[in-house]
Design a protein that fits this description.
The protein is of the alpha/beta class. The protein contains 14 helices and eleven strands. It is globular, with a radius of gyration of 21 Å. The two termini are 26 Å apart.
Length: 319
């Protein structure tokens, strides 16, 4: 194990904590997903620090950063870039769009049309951009943090299930507590501002991603994760009562890939070179909540995926 790299991972968390108050679980899960090479969907009302988190990560990880504000009139070429004819020349020159950065914040992704959303999600999946028949590689590492507001749904275009599946995690951003609000006010309205220092580099992030894939997973731990995933399908013999009643379609194979990869990174962040049952349980909810497609009875009854996953975890035996 690269002990120097593990120490730097601890330093990343500490440096992020200098700029952000609370939101420990959100920070941990977002960092886990990025180090696993995945993308994150953050859901929360405005003003909870989602943009600040993305900027802080880019600064601490020392990688390039762009923010895209999604609006109904945003076009795919506004994201990917386009070919332009320059004055005095008779040929085209490619002008890259904001997608050409190592960390891209897709702010309020559900406000753009499906055509524009698809352009971003294709880039997320392929790590490439194709403009006028020419394919260009995106920077490495390449991460997308997308945000959406769960309250203001008028005039929005919710992401289809197949596109939600491309996010490693869906993370819910909670409202801060009274003490956290006090700290936020003191941190943001005074004269002192936190000066963040880079802790890692893009090359080291790629090395963490490679190292995480080498973290062994015992057969019993893998079997446990597989049983959890299979239990999300209503036709499975191990399906729980809530799954049978409220789930229309269970999680896809990307769900188990996300769980195992994120569990490996979780173990690495804690300085361990083996995946535990607890690592799997820690990442199950954010890895699966956007991969369960609920029926009308669930939506009408206010049943959310988190409650269903919690029941599955309670019903699934370890080892």
């Amino acid at each position: 194990m690269n002990l120097e790299l593990i120490e730097k991972l601890s330093g990343v968390k500490e440096e992020i904590g200098r700029a952000m108050v609370g939101q420990k679980e959100v920070i941990d899960l977002t960092l886990t997903a990025l180090l696993a090479g995945g993308h994150v969907l953050l859901e929360g009302v405005p003003g909870l620090g989602k943009t600040l988190l993305a900027r802080t990560l880019a600064r601490v990880l020392d990688i390039s950063y762009n923010r895209i504000q999604f609006t109904p009139d945003l076009m795919p070429s506004d994201i990917t870039g386009t070919n332009l004819i320059l004055t005095g020349r008779d040929d085209f020159q490619f002008r890259p769009g904001p997608i050409f950065a190592s960390l891209v914040l897709a702010d309020e992704i559900n406000r753009a049309t499906p055509k524009t959303q698809s352009a971003l999600l294709e880039s997320m999946q392929e790590g490439k951009v194709t403009v006028f028949g020419e394919t260009r590689d995106l920077p490495r590492p390449f991460f997308v943090i997308a945000t959406q507001n769960p309250l203001e749904m008028e005039g929005t275009y919710p992401l289809p299930e197949a596109q939600l599946d491309r996010f490693l995690f869906k993370v819910l951003v909670p409202y801060p507590s009274l003490e956290e609000l006090r700290e936020i006010v003191n941190l943001t309205t005074g004269t002192a501002q936190a000066e963040l220092e880079p802790v890692m580099t893009g090359a080291e992030i790629l090395e963490v991603n490679r190292l995480a894939r080498e973290v062994p997973v015992a057969d019993k731990v893998l079997e446990y994760a597989l049983k959890i995933l299979v239990s999300t399908h209503p036709e499975s013999p191990s399906a729980t009562p809530m799954v049978k009643e409220y789930v229309q379609v269970g999680a896809s194979p990307r769900g188990i890939q996300s769980i195992i990869l994120a569990a490996r990174v979780t173990a690495l962040l804690e300085g361990r070179f083996n995946v535990s049952f607890a690592d799997v349980e820690k990442v199950c909810v954010p890895a699966l909540r956007h991969r369960l497609f609920l029926n009308f009875e669930a939506l009408g009854g206010g049943i959310n995926p988190d409650a269903i996953i919690a029941e599955i975890l309670d019903a699934t035996e370890r080892g």
